[in-house]
Structure formats: structure tokens, C-alpha cells
Amino acid sequence: MELWYTEKHSESVNFSLKVKEHLFSGQSEFQKLDILDTYEYGKLMTLDGLVMVTEKDEFVYHDMIVHTPMAVNPDVKNVLVIGGGDGGTVRELMRYNNIEHVDMVEIDKLVCDAAKKYLPTLSCELNNPKVTLLYEDGVKFVKESPDNKYDLIIIDSTDPIGPGEGLFTTEFYTNCHRILTENGILVNQNESVFYEDTQEAALKANSKLKKIFPIVKVYQANIPTYPSGYWLFGFASKKYDPIKDLQADKWNSLGLKTKYYNTDLHVGAFALPSFVKEFFENGSIQFL
Amino acid sequence: MELWYTEKHSESVNFSLKVKEHLFSGQSEFQKLDILDTYEYGKLMTLDGLVMVTEKDEFVYHDMIVHTPMAVNPDVKNVLVIGGGDGGTVRELMRYNNIEHVDMVEIDKLVCDAAKKYLPTLSCELNNPKVTLLYEDGVKFVKESPDNKYDLIIIDSTDPIGPGEGLFTTEFYTNCHRILTENGILVNQNESVFYEDTQEAALKANSKLKKIFPIVKVYQANIPTYPSGYWLFGFASKKYDPIKDLQADKWNSLGLKTKYYNTDLHVGAFALPSFVKEFFENGSIQFL
């Protein structure tokens, strides 16, 4: 018997992975979670049937969502992570000695529990004493947080369907801005552009951030298991420009070994293809 | 009835496109060629069952294989294209007024014939009087070409299996070097690294070029229909460095509108992820 997992990357594009074993299936009050052991990508976590993270290519996503802002402000001390229940983002943050504290607000305890059991290479730092893990609604959490608390907010969310929806709203971003220090940076996973399904979310997240933050840029990475293999992140900031203020020498002097990220790639990640730049300026793409 | 085309991106990864209509199927002495009309990617040409080109994402490949070397030496006059039977590479080359002549050597006439009939947006310049279209073996052609003839050679080949095999050999690259002028640049499609199937070819092409050309670099682009969505190109040159000698102002003054390429992205395309840099230095990748 052959077992295959298939995700519809668009209505007429299927991406399928051959499965060794279906290790876990669970339903929380928020979503359905499955852990599959795949031949090519190692262990895979899906939420409501969509790939969240795989052991083989998670390094791309977590390098880009953590080290990009940290190389712009390596002096970050207090971090808020929204989502990120698999633990990959916290794992990368914990490599910075000067980070004093991380609040991680994951709405769904099941995600962390499953990651702790099945994805130990991701969840390995979730019990670090510098990390406070809160199983709460991120929207409510930022609303109730005091002003000027965090130097960095990382929105490591699902797509804006289901529990992730509130993390793509103007109200949420406004509260994020309020609770960031004057050096504050926000990064988010900003969807993608090759397929219509994610274009609108990518555009909306970007245009909402632009109304609130003076500096908003988009950057890119290659994540093979995400639709089209081309994924975007948002970088929003109160004062730091991600290129002009990149502290390459300082970051490199930390000696962190990273599999995807490096400071040359940092600059390249913000150099978007012409059609992507136009999309964020004009709101449309004509492919065919 | 639903019709789906599936390519195995690796032994345990399938990529499938929903098909409106199977427009053409032909067998030449070299390979099997099919044209499918797909919902998401428009018309698709496959050779021996593998995606060569789709109407939706061909702009990425052709922008990167043509404009990258042209922005380093916008004074290119004589070009040799090996392969490239769909016409996309020649179409982009014909946008440069100062290019005087292109020899295009495609081993398989069927590729050009099918492109002319089914992919007019790609093949539209194949009859340009500046283009000499030769249905010959590229390996033999370069062997028999005189010294110092071309300013630019573009190897727009299939994978090194079947008819493309000879285009990945030291002898072939040595002849390419010989027939290039002292300003000569060679670019090739250089496979990819996320899946084992293409890793060896990527590495070999690169290491063979390094034995022959003083400057050899690798650059990257996002091509959703190619395995992993992450694809590499090789840039080999007798004297021009692709970054130091990039003539951004001069290229931008030409006013070419390109959907993927721009001169900032040019620089970013050469900023490889750390694991890719290490792969080309050490010859191995550890993902899991």
C-alpha cells in the first residue's frame, strides 16, 4: 500500500508527498492537526490539511522570520511571538544571548503538545526559562498588553482563515504598533503571489501595515513545501530600514551558524522581482 | 472527467496540474513531446514527461537566463543559444538592438515546430532575420565553431539525461570557452539542490566550469513548476564578474520592461542561501 498526502496549492495544482506513517491525528477546538512522517521532507505537521512545517525545509522559514529582524537590531531584548506553536521561531530566538525574554502566545495548546512529542528538533527550546508560553488568543493578548513593551513582534501565523484571521486585521496591527518600543520591529508571514488564493491576503496585510508603520517592506524566501515554493514575509518598523540599518558586521560577529540566512542574502531577500513590486504598488498581477 | 498531469519532482514528491486539454503528443528521434493546456499555468510543454516550459512562469526562467548576462555586458553582439527550442530565450535576446546575430542550435526540430504552433508568445522571434536556427547537435556545433566567435553563449538545455547529456561535459565547456571572445560570458541552467535527483548534475556542471573559466558563479530564481520551485543558473566568464561588473545604469537606460528581472534582483540572485554556498564548496547537503 502507498500512502500519499496531497495539498491543493491552488484549485488546479496538487502537491503530494509520499507518507511512511500517519503518526497522529487530533482535533482541538480551533483546528485539525495531523503529523505525517514523509519520505522526502521528514515529519510534517498539517493544520486543517495544510502544510505548516516540515523537518526538511523549516530552516528556511525560521531563519528568515527570526534572523532578518535580529540582524537589523541585534540589541533586541524583549520579544513577542504570536503563533509559532511548533517552536522553530523560539528555537532560533534562543540563540541570541542578549534576548532577555520571549512571550509566546499560541492559541492552540495542541500545536505545542504535538510539536513537543513529534518535532523535537523544532520544539527543543519551548521550555527555556526565558520563554513564557501562553495559550491565549493573540488578538486579545496584544489588546491587553501595555505600551512600549516589546522590541520585536514576530507573527508566525497560519493563513488568514480560521484561527489566524484576526492576525491580519488593522486593529491587531495597531495594537502591535502600540506595544512596540520606539525601536520596534514587526515581522509577519505575508503569504505569496503566484496563486490567486493567497494574493489577496498578501496585499491586504501589506497595505494595512503601511497605514500604521512608517517603514514597511516585503522580503522573500524559497520554501519548497509552501504553494509555488515562493513565500513572502513582511517587515514593518518604527525607525529601522531593513537594508540601510542592517548591522551585518555586528550580526556576523555573533558567529551564529545558519543554514539559509546570511547577511548578503538578507539584502537580496528584499530585492523583489518586478512583478511582485508592481503587485504591492498596483494590487494586480497579469500572468497569462 | 478530470485530467491531471503529474511530474515526479522526486521519488516521493508529486506535482500535478489539472489539464483542460491534451493538445499534442509527438515523438522525435530524441524525445517525446507533449503540449497540455492547463488551468493554472496555461499551455505547458513537456519533454519525456518533464515540464520544460509553461506560459505562466516562463518569464522567470527567460528573464534570468538572458538579462543577467546582458546587464553585465550590454555590448554583446554575437550570441550562441544551445537548446532553447521553445523560443523564449531568443525572444528576450531580440529586445536588444545592439545584438547583431544569434545562432540557435536546437537538436530537435519538433520542439521548435510545436512551440511555433502552440506557444506563440514564446516562439514569436524565431523567424527574426537576426536569428539563424540550426537543427543540429550543440556538442558537435561548438566543436566545429571557430575561435573567438561569440560574446555570449546561453545553454538553455534539458536535464543531463537523454539529448542534454553532452551539454554537461568538460569537453563541451572547453569548446564553449574557446569559441567565446575575450569578453565572453557563458550562462547555463544549473539544476537545483533540494532534491537528490538534480544535486549531482548541479555540482558537476559547476565544478567542470570552474576548471575552465576564471570566474564561475551560481545564481538563483523562483520557478514554481520546476522541482522545489528553486532553480539555479551558472554564470561563467573570462573577465566579467557578475556583481562587480554589473552595468546597472546602462542596462536600466535601455528601458526594457521585464516582469521578473531587475538590477537589484540581479545582485540578490547571486546572494545564495548558506547551505547552497556550502554545497558548491563541499559537495554535500545534510537536510534531515
TrEMBL record, chains A, B:
GO terms for molecular function: spermidine synthase activity. One of its GO terms (cellular component) is cytosol. It comes from the Bacteria. Residues 2-238 form the PABS domain. Belongs to the spermidine/spermine synthase family. Coiled coil: none annotated. S-methyl-5'-thioadenosine binds at Q31, E106, D137, G138, P163. Keywords: Polyamine biosynthesis, Spermidine biosynthesis, Transferase. Pathway: Amine and polyamine biosynthesis; spermidine biosynthesis; spermidine from putrescine: step 1/1. Its EC number is 2.5.1.16. The active site is at D156 (proton acceptor). It comes from Tepidibacter thalassicus DSM 15285. The keyword Transferase applies. InterPro entries: PABS, PABS_CS, SAM-dependent_MTases_sf, Spermi_synthase, Spermidine_synt_N, Spermidine_synt_N_sf. Catalyzes the irreversible transfer of a propylamine group from the amino donor S-adenosylmethioninamine (decarboxy-AdoMet) to putrescine (1,4-diaminobutane) to yield spermidine. Homodimer or homotetramer. CDD domains: AdoMet_MTases. Spermidine binds at H62, D86, D156, S157, T158, D159. GO terms for biological process: spermidine biosynthetic process. PROSITE patterns: PABS_1, PABS_2. This is Polyamine aminopropyltransferase.
